[in-house]
Automatic annotation (TrEMBL):
Protein name: Coenzyme F420 hydrogenase
Molecular function as annotated in GO: oxidoreductase activity, acting on CH or CH2 groups, with an iron-sulfur protein as acceptor
Chain ranges of the Coenzyme F420 hydrogenase/dehydrogenase beta subunit N-terminal domain: 89-165
Signal peptide boundaries: none
Pfam families the UniProt entry points to: FrhB_FdhB_C, FrhB_FdhB_N
Coiled coil (UniProt feature): none
Transmembrane segments: none
Length: 456
């Protein structure tokens, strides 16, 4: 088995916070790039720390865990991207204001509330605004619909589980946890080791995941909107704009400007940092991840990034159900949702670019590591450089965009120039990347097509 120390020293830690929970020789800290990272307090770590780490435990991967958890569920099917699944849906919550308050269709918080209402759990573990002045968001425990709704929306922000796991350890209650795929995998691995955690975490709601951001993302968004990093209080990453398509959303940043409280709403299309394809401020670990749809969660929700749904700015979810209790819940409260059962391929299609980056792209990144003779995690995808030349340039470009975004943000802070430094630093790198992503032959082909069809 690979070791947790290889993960940490190789830069593959996603900062989930599960290893410090099982091993006092490890701790969490926020690094200079705004990412939670595990740190080694001594050289020796227990085997259990390596067994619970989602990047160290390559043998106990999502296929193996998924089979163990869902393999014997009646009617279960399997797909390479979705993992195990019973049914797949597209839809949204219709009651309780969950959709208005949510990032997309509001089904994640709606489901958590229904698990509470149906007395399936006593509390919900999810990410909410933090009262600790050092971070904007953290994992917390909610016990009422109101408390759950106060924590609506996606937090593209560093979070970790160690403190909330201490809470679970000290409270003999039933919990549902909401999390991104690698965090859910880490919890499942922990549950293999720790009976009390296994007995208490009754359900896992997964979020589809493109990648996780360092705290620089929130700071940079707010800074470009007119609030200095040291005066930002909070960023709502998914502020819905009336009458705009779902993917044309804004951010809402709050803080202090010229000594007065300020609130700014800025469409993400006007910000230089929000193109998800560029992957600014991404954790390096995300480049070595192959689970897009939280394959070990009881149910997973994401955005329906699909023609026909994207135009509805109120937001729509894709849903993958793996646990029959969740199916029963959807049925029992069906009057509170608008759900359409859809072919599983449609859900896969809704995440096509994320999947390509984590299949074809991952295989090439693994090849690059192997070629350099560097340790890297064991993945379900094999290393290869047998992919088209322009795609190699795209994936190399994305690594550079990720790395340089941190350098550029430090430069923006140190130079005193602010985000104009950032934009200037990133400019040529973005230009080269765009050229690779949209090569000359493709531009010519598009032009010829336009001329032939008379649309120019
Ligand atoms: C880092 C990240 C990357 C994502 N990438 C994609 C993507 O590539 N494609 C896609 O389709 N969807 C992605 N999502 C999911 C998407 O943004 C929505 O969260 C999802 O569609 C659920 O929307 P909703 O309206 O049902 O959720 P809501 O009803 O708004 O509920 C969201 C719930 O999730 C919890 N939560 C928010 N952020 C986090 C977090 N970081 N960790 C754990 N819990 C959290 C909240 O506390 C809340 O309980 C991502 C989410 C995150 C956090
Ligand atoms: S990914 Fe999680 S378990 Fe692995 S080293 Fe980092 S904090 Fe520890
Ligand atoms: S991309 Fe993978 S590793 Fe990164 S946060 Fe999402 S699930 Fe975790």
């Amino acid at each position: 088995m690979d070791r947790v120390s290889q993960v940490i020293q190789g830069g593959y830690c996603i900062g989930c916070g599960v290893c410090p929970f099982v091993d006092a020789s490890l701790a969490m800290r926020m690094d200079e790039d705004g990412k939670y990272q595990a740190v080694e307090l001594s050289q020796e770590h227990s085997d259990i720390a390596s067994r619970v780490c989602p990047f160290a435990n390559g043998e106990y991967n999502e296929d193996v865990l998924g089979k163990e958890i869902f393999g014997s569920v009646s009617g279960i099917q399997h797909d390479d991207v979705l993992g195990f699944y019973l049914k797949t849906y597209i839809g949204h919550a219709v009651s309780g204001g969950f959709r208005d308050k949510g990032s997309s269709g509001g089904l994640v918080n709606w489901m958590a509330s229904k698990l509470l209402a149906a007395d399936k759990v006593d509390a919900v573990i999810h990410v909410k605004e933090s009262s600790d002045g050092n971070v904007m968001y953290s994992y917390q425990v909610s016990r009422s619909v109101q408390e759950i709704q106060n924590g609506a929306k996606s937090k593209y922000y560093p979070i970790e589980l160690s403190e909330v796991l201490d809470y679970v350890k000290n409270h003999d209650e039933r919990f549902v946890v909401i999390g991104i795929p690698c965090f859910i995998k880490a919890l499942r691995l922990l549950e293999e080791e720790d009976e009390s955690i296994r007995n208490r975490i009754k359900y896992h709601i997964g979020l589809v995941c493109g990648h996780l951001k360092s705290s620089f993302f929130a700071l940079a968004e707010a800074w470009e909107s007119g609030i200095d990093p040291e005066h930002v209080k909070n960023v709502d990453f998914r502020y819905k704009l009336p009458d705009r398509p779902a993917n044309d959303y804004a951010i809402k940043a709050t803080g202090i400007s010229n000594g007065k409280p300020i609130e700014v709403v800025k469409p993400t299309r006007e910000l230089s940092t929000t193109n998800w394809g560029y992957g600014y401020f991404k954790y390096n670990a995300c480049e070595y991840c192959d689970d897009v749809l939280a394959e070990t969660a009881d149910v997973t929700c994401g955005d329906a990034w699909l023609p026909g749904y994207q135009s509805d700015g109120k937001g729509t979810n894709v849903v993958v159900v793996r646990n029959s209790d969740i199916l029963d819940l959807l049925e029992k409260f069906s009057s509170e949702t608008q759900l359409e059962e859809v072919p599983s391929e449609l859900v896969v299609q809704s995440q096509s670019s994320g999947v390509r980056h984590r299949r074809e792209g991952l295989s090439y990144r693994l090849h690059l590591k192997d070629e350099a003779g560097e340790w890297r995690p064991t993945k379900r995808v094999s290393a290869t450089d047998n992919i088209p030349r322009n795609r190699k340039r795209v994936y190399e470009g994305r690594i550079q965009l990720m790395n340089e975004s941190f350098t550029a943000f430090h430069g923006a802070q140190e130079s005193g120039e602010g985000m104009s430094f950032f934009v200037r630093h990133m400019g040529p790198i973005v230009k080269a990347y765009k050229k690779a992503d949209n090569p000359l032959w493709r531009r010519i082909a598009r032009k010829v097509k336009r001329i032939l069809s008379g649309t120019r």
